[in-house]
Design a protein that fits this description.
The protein has one helix spanning 102-107; strands spanning 2-14, 17-24, 27-33, 45-50, 56-58, 69-80, 84-91, 94-101, 115-120, 126-130. A hairpin with a 2-residue loop joins strand 2 and strand 3 (27-33). The chain has 133 residues and is mostly beta strands.
Length: 133
């Protein structure tokens, strides 16, 4: 499980759907969810979570994407299995992990030291804990 420290910057809601904005590692992230975690408020310090299988990797990306959650990262190491590649990434002071297919890793010619962009859907990001509730 990937864990990121963040600060809540905005909370928008309609009925029981919420879009929550965060400042994280010098970037802006957004989360979409049905219920607000207990104690969540603007300026709250939180720990965000995202599964490694929900972190996509882009190399030499250009153009517009619907993914608003984009973090710049450097590949620290790659461990190739028969079907999947486990990629350890450095994002500012955080380490993250991504699981992608081995064929994608090879097609993209990913190497340790490559600068990449991590892409995460807002619906896959979640609050693990509110640290100052």
């Amino acid at each position: 499980m990937n864990r990121l420290s963040a600060i809540v910057t905005q909370i928008e809601g309609e009925q029981n759907l919420h879009i929550i904005s965060f400042e994280c590692a010098g970037s802006k992230l957004k989360m979409m969810g049905l219920d607000l975690p207990k104690g969540l408020h603007i300026n709250a310090h939180v720990t965000l979570g995202i599964k490694p299988s929900h972190v996509a990797i882009a190399k030499n990306m250009s153009g517009e994407l619907s993914y608003s959650n984009q973090l710049q990262a450097t590949i620290k190491s790659i461990e190739n299995g028969k079907l999947l590649s486990s990629i350890l990434l450095h994002v500012n002071e955080n380490e993250m992990q991504s699981f992608i297919t081995r064929s994608s890793c090879e097609r993209m010619n990913l190497q340790s030291g490559d600068d990449v962009t991590l892409l995460m859907k807002a619906s896959e990001l979640f609050v693990l804990e509110v640290n100052d509730a």
